[in-house]
Amino acid sequence: MKFKKTVLDNGIRVLSEHHAESRCVVTGFWIETGTRFEAPHQIGISHLLEHMVFKGTEKYSAFELARCLEAVGGDINAFTAREHTCFHTTSLNEHLDLSVEVLAQLTAFAKFNEKEFLKEKKVVQQEIMMAADDLEEYAYDLYFEELFPGDPLGYQILGSIESVESMQVSDIQKYYSENFHPQNLIVTASGSVDHEALVESIEKHLVGKQWGTPAPKKKVITPKQQKVRTLFEKDCEQYHIIAGFPACSYSDDDRFDGFVLNTTLGGGMTSKLYQSVREERGLVYSIFSMLNTFVDCGMQTIYAGTERNHVEEVIELIQKELTSLLDKGISKEDVELYKTQAKGQIIIGAEDIDSRMNSLAVNEMVFQKYRSVEQVVSDIDKVSVESVHKYIKDKVDLENLSLFVLGPKDDKLKEYIKNC
Description:
Elements: E1 2-7, E2 13-18, E3 24-31, H1 45-52, H2 62-70, E4 75-80, E5 85-92, H3 96-108, H4 114-133, H5 135-147, H6 161-166, H7 169-179, E6 185-191, H8 195-205, E7 229-233, E8 239-247, H9 255-266, H10 272-279, E9 287-293, E10 298-306, H11 311-328, H12 332-349, H13 353-367, H14 373-381, H15 385-395, E11 402-407, H16 411-419
Parallel strand pairs: 2-6, 7-11
Antiparallel strand pairs: 1-2, 3-5, 3-6, 4-5, 8-10, 8-11, 9-10
Helix pairs in contact: 1-7, 3-8, 9-12, 9-15, 10-11, 12-14
């Protein structure tokens, strides 16, 4: 792998990683804005804008945008996150210039039509309703709202039916002009990519663009995580349980200790909770943990879905495992096991050029520098039994453990959640 970086005169950062064995290239145009930078009256605007740019640009209609890449066997897509938005393509290396052209059209030359806007609002509202039927995902959205009440980090990425309905096409145009700007734009490419050709293509396809005046950079204020003890009532077959506590941020030095703890709790089939709750007792089908990290904060979550008769037992098993980790820590054998697992995942992931394209962007946004696979593996090697134990003592606080449950109304369970 060969890394190169160029900063264009207008501030656009271009990063590439050449993989000689690949015939494909994954290209991403990353905008450093997302749900976390929205105002209260704008909730969901980043995601709605992600949809709208595909409705037509100065050069291409909506159909032509889709056909350009599909006609040559490629793919184009996008996603909105809490701290960024990404538009990305996968193509053969000979179609890199086409990928850059289409991505440049989306991020710099989108045209917003009132008729298409009204139609796309309905599409997004359908997506919101569909997401509410995915109860695992919906539970996490509600948990974030309660964890960060009133803070943009707790906003739902899709917005709400009401917030989307209230938006005007002029709001989209203004948000696009103020946020889709060279200082906010990072271009990353991984695979069979020639860096100089990439830079040349970007400059060619953005020539003549008259950029708007960027909005003042919104200062990120780290929110205080609230202790959540809630039963959110919804008719469904299972109860969806989320337990959580504050954790490391993406930039913290102890984030790999956090990774080891997460893997220990519920990061795979060998994890403590998977074994005790599912394999030994058969109480759940799905149980896992996630380390959710942002630039300045993070949270450790544990999810389980089960029927009413098992809710209290599952919660008690989660608390028991956390208590055991506080009292006894993690054995040296297990720490080495999970370190090896982490390194394996990193090295295997390096074979995936889509994963590497994402890593290039995230490392630039968080660290403002390139981090090779070898550097990451070296950082994992530094994790020790002592450092993991310190992390557990610093982060795991059972008195302030959050507990969010989504499921049918049950007054007895509601009281239990508050007091357990």
